[in-house]
What we know:
alpha+beta; Helix Hairpins; BirA Bifunctional Protein, domain 2
Amino acid sequence: MHDLQLFRSQLDSTAERLASRGFSLDKNAFRAIDVKRRDALTEVERLKADRNERSKDVGARKKAGEDTTDLQTAMRAMGDRIAELEASSEQLDVEFRDMLKGIPNLPHESVPIGKDEHGNVEVRREGAAATMNFAPKPHWDLGVDLGILDFERAAKVTGSRFAVYFGQGAKLERALVNFMLDTHTAEHGYMETLPPFLVNSDSLYGTGQLPKFAEDLFKCEGTDYWLTPTAEVPVTNLLRDETIDAEKLPVKLVAYTPCFRSEAGSHGRDVRGIIRQHQFQKVELVKFAHPEHSYAELDGLTHDAENILRKLELPFRTMALCTGDMGFGSAKTFDIEVWLPGQNSFKEISSCSNYDAFQARRAGIRFRGTKKNEFLHTLNGSGLAIGRTWVAIVENYQQADGSVTVPKVLQPYLNAEQITRQGLLT
């Protein structure tokens, strides 16, 4: 949600900032509603002042024994008109808020201007791709050949865009969850939390998924419960409608959840393998920060996510997203992309964003400032997407004989140095 006063006082410059991210704000419609609302409020104030004066006149005339029937009739009519105008202004406020619900967040001034992903800017690149004296395979071949990944049985159980892990494949997924949680809590200072995996509509509105992105979600029929699309939703809403002492900021939380997305509009994108699934697992980092420090906190959160890749010794690059490629609620985003030799490309593995007060305003999350309560800033990012990290390990650590070497930091979690051929019925 946006600051309505900002739109009213700086409409032209606000429209320009929104245009940089490809959104066209209907300034005429906005001004028309605003003029109607202001006119209604002005008329209400005038009528109330007039009614007060007439009330005094009625009192004086009653004391003088004069008939006040006509005056009281006129005052009742004024009262009806005031109620009508107040209802109208309230309805116009609702129209304002409905209009604001569909407007994306304003980009931070440091965000590069661009129309799409081609306008993104590389910030840094770390790690070198492993030298392979053979043609690297993609994970959808490697995993199936090793007997640790099965798409056909998943499709039988559920449908397309689901996967089953077996043996060391399943254990690798679990190991990654534990490794990431251990690192973020012990080394990066986050508090671990395990939130519900079902969320209500208020929670999805608070983080910006509703009402605009309902088609991307799965809803439980006959209830107000939705499967969480990311831990960002339940974790951010843990502080909904709360006011935090400023000295307690930043609040840093990390959570593991399964995530569920319909992937509406993604037809033809990453159709092979487990890059884009209806169900996947993720470790999410969430911060609640003071507005003066939130961009330093964004840098820190991004570094924390990158550090997982450093420990796994996986090559990656970090991109500053341009205005035209950012998510709906983000004010600034860094995408971390891991190198996948089996696909000869970088693939996003974490998206780290500062939402400024966009989510806090929708969810009513404030902090106690020096003079008044203010909206804090919310930040989040994957730390990391488990399935995509699984893919990166399998593809980067594959060997010529089809086995996969386990990264050193994960060997204690798997109690193994190598992933070799196995299978359900072999």
